[in-house]
Amino acid sequence: MSAPDLLRIPLLGRFLRWRYSRFVLQLPLLLIALLALYDGFFGRQLAPKNFATVSVWLHYRGFLVLAIAVFGNLFCAACPMLLVRGPTRFVKRFLPQFRWPRRLRNKYFVIVLTIFYLFAYEYWDLWASPWLTAWLIIGYFGAAFLVDALFPEGTFCKYVCPLGNFNFTLSTVSPTQITARDPQVCLSCEGKYCVNGRVETEGGRKTAREADPSEGVHYPGCETRLYVPQIQTNMDCTLCMNCLRACPYDNVALKLRFPGLEWLKARYRLDVVWLGVLLFFAGFMNALGMVPAYYQIAEDLSRLLGTRNEAILLIVIYALWIGLGGGITLLVTTLADRLSGVRQSPWKAVRYWGAGFFPLAFAMWAGHYAFHFLTGWATIVPVTQQALSNLGLPMGDPDWTLAALVPENWLYPLQVVILYIGLLAASYVLFGRARQRDHFLAGGVVFVYFFLLVALALWVLAQPMEMRGTLLLPPGSR
Amino acid sequence: MRKWAWLLVLALAACQPKHGEPLKAQVRFVPEHPSVGKAEVCIEVDPRVEFTRVTVVGDMTHPGMIPVKAEAHPAGPGLWRVDAFDFNMRGDWVLTITAYDKSGKKYTKEVRLTVP
Ligand code: SF4
Ligand code: SF4
Ligand SMILES: [Cu+2]
Questions:
Q1: Which of A256, A279, A294 is the last residue before a domain boundary?
Q2: What is the value of ipTM here, to two decimals?
């Protein structure tokens, strides 16, 4: 446990401990969101030349994956949506307060919302419409406001936000994690302030629950209710650093780590593993939705079902694909269990082996986003120029001839490398877990399954991209 | 769905590019329905207006794609042509035709098409 602690880095540590550090991180993203709203509503409705679509679908997604790979869940830390906190604190006084239903305190609700979001993304072609993208931003802020006003803090992040849960899941690959510096100190810690919050009053130190809201200086605890000495995974950690500020013993560390340890050791809940599985198959679908084969499938399915209704076709395709993915995963992991001589319920098998899906899901999204981000990353310059000059600022003439960041023929090899690294990491998980059971072969079964999935993904990424909004072409035009 | 489409149309109408008058023009392609690769773009404008320059910029509807630009050359009264416009990818394209008159004033027209 002597991994380097990033909070020991002089300026960084000081900054993150500071009360307003999160606000400083949120402010730029808030300004970007406002500019996106402005351009999305009033700018030219052309996706590659509008700040809303370029910033949200290209840079936000690209940087997010990059940040998770090299550091951690920075985008939750900087999430401007949580700035609704100020207003909600005010309206909370007049509104009834609810508790989030116990049955929804898992990731299944998020899984449903994520599936709906993916459907909406394809059905309304959100990526192609600055206007809808702007509405998406508004809807998101509105949902955060509503949930935060009616439910306890942290409910939105943990149980509702599809984007945050996407970040949580992918950040299981991150090289950093919150941990206790010295677990012994936590054992003798009277208030467990990192999770309960700390209030310094004249009468002494209290937890947030013990103290009156109006007395003393408040240091809120972890909103997603993580207890620092027990954290094994980045799941649910927004890197908000509340724990750091709440701990009176300076016992919170942000340690560099080897993510593989988490995948091997953490005992993920079933709902968490399903979320990982879903994100892999969703990432695959997101990429497949951009290649000619997908449109061919849609045409064939349309003929088979005798309908040209895009919603029905999309639902059928998604249900088949995600159902098939879940089903085969269940079968293969159960088989692996049996091979290693373990007889337990199939759900437990998914929990045990499904951890391998985390690196795989990350690689799938990273591989696909890398393509778009590296091709178009420079377009943020003219798009910002144009949006600001529409606002009346003197910005000069936007130049749209900016080139891609890397030569075009590097893109596919790069995607191959990313997916292979994902497969390598996944096999580390599989064989590591197989070895814990002294049964190497069992890991091999799941590995073959993963290998085939990656091969399929690479085939999809090798196809020429087709950027089309309609699932079916008008009859006779092909 | 229809309601959405309507709202979208309204928003589109409200959000035409601020610079540039609408350009009255007929745009045709050879072949008539271009597929991925090169195609000819013919732009027929009002022959009574004297244009000095016509450009065609093609964008994909996906953010992050680099636009394709071309200069049209005059090919008869009121006729401008791009001989080989490069539809370099399948999908939805938005062509922006920009014409400049003698005084340098800009006129624009947008054409949307799907390249299978
Ligand atoms: S991290 Fe700090 S506040 Fe939390 S239990 Fe340990 S000593 Fe207490
Ligand atoms: S308070 Fe909770 S969510 Fe915030 S950084 Fe600490 S563990 Fe992560
Ligand atoms: Cu794509």
A1: A256
A2: 0.81
Q: Which residues of B touch A385 (CB under 8 A)?
A: none
A291/A377 same-domain check:
yes
Domain B20-115 has CATH 2.60.40.10: yes
Of A48, A125, A390, the CB nearest to B65: A48
Give the length of chain B: 116
pLDDT in tens, A81-133: 999 988 998 999 999 999 999 999 999 999 999 999 999 999 999 999 999 99
Beta carbons of A148 and A156 less than 8 angstroms apart:
yes
Residue A80 CA to ligand 1 center (angstroms) comes to 28
Note whether A15 and A106 are same-domain residues: yes
Closest CA to A321 of A117, A108, A119: A119
- In the listed set A256, A284, A314, which residue is the last one of a domain according to the structure? A256
Domain presence at residue A274: yes
Q: Contact B30/B67 with Cβ under 8 angstroms?
A: no
Structure tokens, B99: 């014409």
Our CA-based measurement puts residue B74 at a distance from the nearest CA of chain A, in whole angstroms, of 24
Decide if A467 touches B, using CB distance below 8 A: yes
B63, B12 contact by CB (below 8 A):
no
Give tens-digit pLDDT for A27-62. Answer: 999 999 999 999 999 999 999 999 999 999 999 999
User: Is A468 part of a structural domain of the chain?
Assistant: no
Please check whether residues A280 and A237 belong to one and the same domain. no
Residue at token pair 């891609």? A404
Do the domain assignments include residue A1?
A: no
Q: Which residues pair with A254 in a beta bridge?
A: A178
The two beta strands, B51-60 and B37-45, are: unpaired
